[in-house]
Write a structure and sequence with these properties.
This protein has 430 residues and is an all-alpha fold. It has 19 helices and no strands. The chain has a single domain, classed as MFS general substrate transporter like domains (Growth Hormone, Chain: A, Up-down Bundle), CATH 1.20.1250.20.
Length: 430
C-alpha cells in the first residue's frame, strides 16, 4: 500500500497552499476553454482551405509574435507587479476569444482574419504564460516545486484530454458548431482571472533590471553560460520542431478515418490521456536526480511514438501511440521546468522563464510549419515518420555534445547552486 502511494502524484501543494489551489483550479477551467479554441481554429482553417500547409501556417501566426514579444515580456515581468500584469493580459485574451466567437457566429470564412486573431492571442500569451509560471516558485517551497509543476502539468493534461473530446462533440452538432467552442473559451477566462485576483502579495526581486533589450540580453547570456539550461532548451526544441506533427492531424484523419470531427478530437485527447496517466503516477519524479538524462530518454520515447503513429493504420493503435507520446511529454516538461526554476535566481526568473516559453511555444509552432510544409511536398505519413526518427537521433546527439547536461545531478528538494539568493517563500492563506 505504501509503495502504491509513492507512485501517485503528490497533491500536497493543493492541500497546503490555498492560493496555489485557487490558481490551479482557475487555470484548469480556463484551460478547457482554451482547448476548444485550439481545436476549432485548425479545423476551421482546414474546412475553408483543405490544405495541410494552411493549417501549418497557423504556426507562423503564433510563432512570430511569440518570439518577437516573449523575451521582452520576460524582462517586463521581472520589473512590474506580476499579478496585475497577468490580470490585464487575461482580460485582453478573453476579448480576443470573443472576437473569434463573433466571426464564427457571423459565418465569415476569412482565413487572414483567423491568422490575425491567432497572432493577437499568441502575443498576449507570450507574456502571460511565462509570468504565470513564476507564481509557482513564489507560492511553494523548493521541496514542493516538482510536485507543483507536476500538478500544473496535470491541469494541462486535463485540458488536452477533456477539451478536444468535448470540442469534437460540440463541433459535430450543427446547432452548436465551432462558434460555441470559441464562446465557451471567452467565458472560461473568468475562472482564471478569479484565481489571479486572489493571489497574495508575492516577494519581488530586488534590483530588478529595467525592461528592454539589455535586460533580455542579460537573461540570454545567463542561459548560454549554463550547459544545463542550454541542454534543456535544445532537447525541447529537438522534440517540438521535428517530432510534433499536430498540423498533420486533420489530413491524416481525413485520409485514414474519413475526416470525422469526433475522431480528430480523439487524436489530441489520446495525447492528453497518456499525459494524465503519467501525471497521476508521477510520485517517483521527485526522486529523479539526473534530470538531464531522464529528459533525453523522454524525448527519444516521444519521437519513437510519433514515428509509430505515422505508420499505424488501426485507430486503436494510433491512439495508443499518441498516448505514449503524451506520457513522455509530461515527464519532459516536468524535468525541464524543475531544471529551469531551480537553476535560475529570482531576479532573472521572468526572463529565463520567458525564454523557456518561447522555446516551447515557438518550437512547437515551427514544428507545425515544418510538418505541414513537408506533408504538402511529400505526404503526411512521410512527414510524421521522418520527424519522429530525427527526434530520436537529435536526443542522442545532444547527450554526446553536452555531457554536463547528461550528468546534471540536482535533488529537487535542495536549491541548486544558482538559487542561494532566490529561495521561494511558501505562501499560505491568512
Amino acid at each position: 500500500m505504501v509503495r502504491a502511494r509513492r507512485l501517485l502524484a503528490d497533491i500536497g501543494p493543493l492541500r497546503d497552499c490555498a492560493p496555489f489551489r485557487r490558481l490551479w483550479a482557475g487555470t484548469t477551467l480556463s484551460g478547457l476553454g482554451t482547448a476548444l479554441t485550439m481545436f476549432a481554429v485548425p479545423l476551421q482553417v482546414y474546412d475553408i482551405t483543405h490544405s495541410p500547409f494552411a493549417v501549418g501556417a497557423i504556426g507562423i501566426a503564433q510563432m512570430v509574435p511569440t518570439i518577437a514579444i516573449g523575451l521582452l515580456g520576460g524582462s517586463l515581468a521581472d520589473a512590474v507587479d506580476r499579478r496585475r500584469l497577468v490580470f490585464v493580459l487575461g482580460c485582453c485574451s478573453a476579448g480576443v476569444s470573443g472576437a473569434l466567437a463573433a466571426q464564427a457566429f457571423a459565418g465569415l470564412r476569412v482565413v487572414w482574419l483567423l491568422y490575425a486573431l491567432v497572432a493577437a492571442q499568441a502575443s498576449l500569451s507570450a507574456v502571460n504564460a511565462p509570468v504565470r509560471q513564476t507564481f509557482v516558485p513564489g507560492l511553494l517551497s523548493a521541496g514542493q516545486l516538482p510536485a507543483g509543476l507536476a500538478l500544473n502539468r496535470l491541469s494541462f493534461q486535463i485540458m488536452l484530454t477533456v477539451g478536444p473530446a468535448l470540442a469534437g462533440l460540440i463541433a459535430a452538432v450543427p446547432a452548436l458548431g465551432l462558434r460555441t467552442c470559441y464562446l465557451v473559451d471567452a467565458v472560461s477566462f473568468g475562472a482564471s482571472l478569479y484565481g489571479v485576483a486572489r493571489l497574495p502579495v508575492l516577494p519581488r526581486a530586488a534590483n530588478a533590471a529595467r525592461p528592454g533589450p539589455r535586460a533580455v540580453a542579460e537573461g540570454v547570456r545567463f542561459i548560454l553560460r549554463s550547459p544545463v539550461l542550454a541542454g534543456a532548451f535544445l532537447a525541447d526544441l529537438n522534440a517540438t520542431v521535428f517530432g510534433l506533427p499536430i498540423a498533420l492531424f486533420p489530413a491524416i484523419n481525413a485520409e485514414r478515418f474519413g475526416g470525422n470531427p469526433r475522431t480528430l478530437g480523439l487524436f489530441t485527447a489520446a495525447i492528453g490521456v497518456g499525459g494524465l496517466v503519467s501525471v497521476a503516477f508521477s510520485g517517483p519524479v521527485k526522486h529523479v536526480v539526473r534530470q538531464g538524462r531522464a529528459m533525453l530518454y523522454a524525448v527519444a520515447i516521444w519521437g519513437a511514438a510519433f514515428a509509430g503513429f505515422a505508420v499505424a493504420r488501426a485507430l486503436w493503435l494510433t491512439l495508443v501511440l499518441l498516448a505514449i507520446a503524451g506520457a513522455a511529454d509530461t515527464f519532459t516538461v516536468v524535468f525541464r521546468g524543475t531544471i529551469v526554476q531551480l537553476t535560475t535566481p529570482d531576479q532573472l526568473r521572468g526572463r529565463v522563464t520567458a525564454a523557456d516559453y518561447v522555446v516551447g511555444a515557438g518550437g512547437s509552432q515551427l514544428g507545425n510549419i515544418e510538418a505541414g510544409a513537408l506533408g504538402s511536398l511529400t505526404s503526411p505519413t512521410i512527414s510524421a515518420l521522418s520527424g519522429g526518427l530525427v527526434t530520436i537521433a537529435g536526443a542522442a546527439i545532444i547527450g554526446l555534445a553536452l555531457p554536463a547536461f547528461l550528468r546534471h545531478h540536482a535533488r529537487p528538494s535542495e536549491p541548486a547552486e544558482h538559487t542561494a539568493d532566490a529561495t521561494p517563500v511558501a505562501a499560505t492563506e491568512a
